[in-house]
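Re: beginner question about structure tokens

> Can someone show what the tokenized structure looks like for a real chain? I only ever see the sequence side.

Sure, here's an example I had lying around. Input first:
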Amino acid sequence: MTTVLKLLIAVAIIAYMVGSEQLSFSKILYALNPLSFLWIATLCVTAMTLTSFRWNLLLRIFNFRYSLWETLKLSLIGTFFNTFMPGAVGGDIIKTYYIYAEEKDKKSKMLASFSVLLDRVVGLATLIFFSTLLFLFFWNDIADNATFRKLFWFALSCSMLGVSGIVVLWVLSKKNLNRVSTEQEKRFSRWLSSGVEIISHLKGKWHYIYLSLFMTFVTQSITISIFYFAARALGFYDIPLKTFFLAVPLGMLVMALPLTPAGVGTSQAAFLLMFQWIGVPSSFSGADVCTVVQIIVVTTSLVSGFWFYIKYKRGSIKSDWKIAPETTS
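And the corresponding structure tokens:
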């Protein structure tokens, strides 16, 4: 689908929700009072900072030494472009472009670019695993819900597949794959050779993976609290926190899909359905909560991301980047 078509789909969904009174802009404007806006924006910036720290850790696997400040700048630029590009992965394309252009040799370009993909995979995989754990923790609340039971088995299957993949990578990283000779390497395809190169960097650096997974759990907990406080800003004080722990991770998965620009429309529909399936009062609208969060995230991203993007275009960020190979003892 073209960007124009995706934009039309987003507008159509929003128009339908407004017409059916499932989305209320008057309530949303009420929720965007200065105090609530500042508090939720602070949580958003905290989550963005932790996400950039995760990427910083994954870069270290491949012996890059970006500072946290530099990865935060690039992450904010990527978040800025997420505002205009479909889904929540559009900014990754921008991050990949800039970090690819910064590197000089072909191998470094490949590894630096792969770190962006790895960062996204770690985030999505942890989100699915987190959802599975929450389903188990709140099983008594969803046991009678056929829809959530199906979602649980799907999440559990994906989690088991992810764990199996991690075990395979861990075993392979223990092998001396980095000692493949030139003649042997010629027998590999281009992609398989790159895979060997990537896996070889994991040896002795799994602590970066473990720490990045932990950082993702923390970030996702903060994200859930953002939706919780957005609901309170809308005047809903009687919705328990566990409801958000069940609904938000699944809604975040939909937001990551490249269906509409910034996930507008599809995200509102997803959160509306998730909260309805849980059985919240009819007066509560997950679409309103999602919109409040999106407005604050977009505003924060536009202000910070655009500022750093302009500085980057002028060369003031790029000239400060310092990359040094990791020393081994």
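Each token stands for a local structural state, so reading them left to right follows the chain. Residues 3-316 form one domain.
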